[in-house]
Design brief:
Blueprint: H1 6-24, H2 26-32, H3 40-49, H4 56-63, H5 68-80, H6 86-102, H7 112-115
Helix pairs in contact: 3-4, 5-6
Length: about 120
């Protein structure tokens, strides 16, 4: 019996693996900073160049909001300057998305806009 979620889990694992690699590799971080376009295609192109089988749509499914991309570039710069670890920033993003998924219509307490 084949689990229909196998492809989804593999995709999620690939995305997580990519972001873990970004956290650990300054060369990859540099490639994701400007002039890399702050959008799904820019990130996907870099991921593919590094051997990850990811599309812009795959990354969008994981990060959920277009605002992620310019904020991600800023987080990379802050990481490289020692202000905040990139892994911590990514974990905050995921926690925020989890809260948003739990109560998507409750914008009084916890919204992506407030996070950004």
């Amino acid at each position: 019996m084949v689990d229909s979620n196998d492809g989804v889990m593999s995709q999620r694992e690939d995305i997580i693996g990519f972001f873990q690699k970004v956290c650990d590799d300054p060369t990859l971080q540099d490639q994701l900073k400007p002039p890399c376009p702050a959008n799904r295609d820019g990130v996907a192109n870099i991921a593919q160049a590094w051997g990850f089988n990811l599309t812009g749509a795959d990354i969008d499914d994981y990060v959920r909001f277009a605002a992620f991309y310019p904020q991600f570039q800023e987080a990379i710069a802050q990481h490289q300057s020692g202000e905040e670890h990139l892994a911590d920033w990514l974990n905050k993003w995921r926690k925020h998305l989890k809260k948003f998924e739990e109560t998507p219509l409750d914008d009084r307490y916890d919204t992506i806009k407030r996070y950004l």
